[in-house]
Design goal:
This protein is an alpha/beta fold. The chain folds into 3 domains: 7-118, no CATH class; 134-218 and 307-448, P-loop containing nucleotide triphosphate hydrolases (Rossmann fold, 3-Layer(aba) Sandwich); 223-289. It is built from 14 helices and 18 strands. Strands 9-8-18-17-16-10-15-14-11-13-12 form an 11-stranded mixed beta sheet. Helix 1 (53-64) packs antiparallel against helix 2. Bound molecules: adenosine-5'-diphosphate and magnesium ion (MG).
């Protein structure tokens, strides 16, 4: 029998270990085909370790000594073949048949099975054949096999996470570009002002499809666009403030309220005691000083985004209150549009966990997808998100994490097993583990394509 390059050394449930000699040959994310005459099992490497077999092998030989000296001698002579043995720890992902790949671990590998490494091309072909709306986002890590994911799989809740500078926004922009080029509308909560720069993109027609909104400049928040509680919180109108009741009367009695000008004259003419009116006007002056309240028709802007463009709300260098108010307003408008049957829009939320109100997460997970609002949430602080978001997301793109704590948190994601997720500790720039609808449930280690001349999130330098 020819010497097998990879040898099955242990199996337990869906976990198998394969021994081999060339450590540079195998890395986490690689896949093996373990086959007998009837079927083919696909197993994926989640860790490569030093085998430590050398010692076990020596002990084995010692035991054999005296039993069958010729066999012991043979093994002893070939001891070098077992030096520096490495172990590929693998998870069985499923089986391959004529019908294609099916997930699950019904079959267990056995001694004597043929074990071969699957090339990147083969793997991509097995897993990602015939996407309806193909988007080329990168290559399988360590191979030149292009990865084309189906944009349709983003009609869901997608999380992009990883430490700062690992390549999250770069991937998000890449996905955004594909969506727009395919005629999908999108809205971006651009907390760091990096998407607005896509306007300068040299890509054919792409820059022109980015519509930038800047609060206080060409984006305003009508008073009826946010909940009364949010208005009070932002303008420091506490419940024990003597003007609180006056404001709440205005909100209740003036459903058509539109702007601070109306509010001011209504309060002045309210017949309230002068002290109360004075206090209320003081709060209105404060609201006015934020410079963001005004008449605005966001629904109209949304409608204009229908034909494949992105509305980018540039929140860079805005105060915390304006960021929060703008995000609350936009999300409410989106949900209202969804309820009118005018959803079908992709929402990119960058680092927005800091500005989302708690109820928003329930909305994302439970309501938004039914309203046709597909969210792509990008964060380098996973622990600030409710764990339910990780448990229920449909797609996860996990970039490098140096913190075990962050990774342990992300590993609550139901779409991935913790062992596989821990590959993320060793990923380089632009590399991620992708899993979920977009990879047909199979974790893929992807090297995201570098940009094609698009403006990135680079630090602006004084000295190049
Ligand atoms: N796949 C990639 N190929 C080449 N450069 C990349 C890639 N991903 C990110 N970069 C670059 O690395 C830097 C950080 O990436 P970015 O996506 O802004 O990180 P993050 O959003 O995770 O903080 C940027 O300058 C970006 O252009
Ligand atoms: Mg970023």
């Amino acid at each position: 029998m020819p010497y097998a390059k990879f040898q099955l050394v242990s199996k337990k449930g869906d976990d198998v270990s394969l021994a081999f000699q060339q450590p540079s040959e195998i890395k986490a994310g690689d896949c093996f085909k373990i086959s007998d005459s009837a079927s083919e099992i696909i197993a994926q490497v989640y860790d490569v370790r030093y085998g430590g077999l050398k010692k076990a092998f020596s002990e084995f030989i010692q035991k054999l000594n005296g039993a069958d000296s010729s066999f012991a001698e043979f093994l002893g002579r070939n001891k070098h073949a077992f030096n520096e043995t490495w172990l590929a720890k693998c998870k069985i992902r499923g089986t391959l048949s004529k019908q294609g790949f099916s997930a699950g671990t019904l079959k267990s590998p056995a001694a004597g099975n043929i074990i071969e490494k699957i090339s990147g091309q083969q793997l991509a072909q097995i897993l990602l054949s015939n996407p309806r709306k193909p988007a080329s986002i990168g290559t399988l890590h360590g191979s030149s096999a292009p990865i084309e994911i189906d944009l349709a799989s983003f009609q869901a809740v997608t999380l992009i996470t990883g430490r700062k500078g690992s390549g999250k926004s770069h991937l998000a922009k890449n996905i955004l570009e594909h969506l727009i080029q395919n005629g999908a509308p999108a809205i971006v909560l651009d907390v760091n002002g990096e998407y607005a720069r896509l306007k300068q993109s040299k890509q054919s027609g792409f820059g022109a499809r980015i519509v930038e909104f800047i609060p206080g400049k060409n984006f305003f928040i009508p008073l009826d666009g946010i909940p009364f509680e949010t208005f009070c919180r932002m303008c420091q109108i506490e419940e024990n403030h003597n003007s609180f009741r006056l404001f709440s009367r205005y909100w209740a009695e003036r459903p058509e309220r539109k702007n601070l000008f109306h509010l001011r004259s209504w309060i002045t003419e309210s017949g309230s005691p002068p002290g109360t009116i004075g206090a209320a006007l003081g709060r209105i002056d404060y609201a006015d000083s934020l410079g963001v309240f005004g008449e605005f028709n966001f629904g109209q802007s949304l409608a204009s985004a229908r034909a494949g463009s992105a509305l980018v709300l540039n929140l860079f260098q805005q105060g915390e209150k304006i960021k929060q108010l703008s995000i609350v307003y936009v999300l409410r408008q989106l949900i209202e549009a969804g309820m009118r049957g005018e959803g079908k829009i992709f929402l990119f939320a960058e680092e927005a966990q800091n500005y989302f109100e708690k109820e928003f997460w329930d909305d994302v997970i439970t309501r938004m997808r039914h309203l046709g609002i597909y969210s792509i949430i990008i964060t380098n602080e996973p622990t600030t998100l409710p764990s339910m978001v990780f448990r229920q997301c449909d797609n996860l793109f996990c970039f490098n994490f140096s913190s075990e704590n962050d990774l342990a948190f992300v590993s609550q994601a139901q779409v991935i097993d913790p062992q596989t997720l821990f590959i993320a500790k060793n990923l380089g720039l632009g590399q991620c583990i992708a899993i979920g609808k977009s990879t047909n449930g199979f974790p893929l280690v992807i090297q995201i394509n570098p940009s094609k001349g698009q403006a990135g999130g680079e630090t602006v330098l004084l000295w190049e």
